[in-house]
Design brief:
This protein is of the alpha+beta class. It has helices spanning 92-104, 155-160, 170-178, and strands at 7-12, 15-25, 31-38, 49-58, 63-68, 78-79, 81-85, 112-119, 124-133, 147-153.
């Protein structure tokens, strides 16, 4: 994996802060050369940032769900994926491996791409992956500030979780649609 500039100094008001830098993409997942996006700053119209999600499925058929830190947006809700924004210089697969390691402590084997989604309203491009594993179920290491709990649930329990429980139904829709 190549080294990517993870952060950069950005002027905000009269001070400089360290923040994430992202590559810019068009609606079709093509990188826009020479354009850098800055976390928490508005994007130009027609410009998107890339996010990657990894669904972790145990070989016994259960899925890993993690509870978001209560201080975050959608705090206390459950997520089916480990994931986040691709940093400048990262491709989707590099981002997926990094985010999975950061949020679960797990080093993935082969990831299977399940699909790509465009969310125009938030200028976001999602690449969804599935990782089927035989990892020890008690071996999850939660990332401080991101998640506070985890559990393994079977497919039926996952599909029965309500919109009040889940931070996003986008990935659950993939499971329903693809039957994974």
């Amino acid at each position: 994996m190549k080294c990517a500039p993870l952060t950069g100094w950005v002027e905000r008001g009269r001070k400089y802060i360290m923040t994430e830098l992202w590559d810019a993409y068009d609606h079709y997942f093509n990188k826009i050369k020479g354009m850098t996006l800055i976390r928490d700053e508005p994007f130009p119209e027609g410009v998107y940032h890339l996010l990657c999600d990894v669904i972790v499925k145990h070989i016994d058929g259960s899925y890993l769900v993690m509870q978001r830190d209560f201080r975050k947006h959608h705090g206390g809700m459950w997520e089916l994926t480990a994931g986040g924004c691709a940093l400048q210089g990262e491709g989707p697969l590099e981002c997926a491996y990094r985010e999975l390691k950061e949020e679960t402590g797990l080093d993935a084997g082969n990831l299977e791409e399940l699909g790509r989604t465009v969310q125009d309203e938030c200028q976001s491009l999602y690449v969804e992956y599935l990782w089927v594993t035989d990892c020890p179920k008690d071996g999850i290491v939660l990332q401080e500030g991101e998640t506070v709990a985890y559990k393994w649930v079977d497919r039926n329990a996952l599909l029965e979780m309500s919109a009040h429980d889940l931070a996003s139904n986008r990935t659950v829709g993939l499971i329903r649609e693809l039957g994974v």
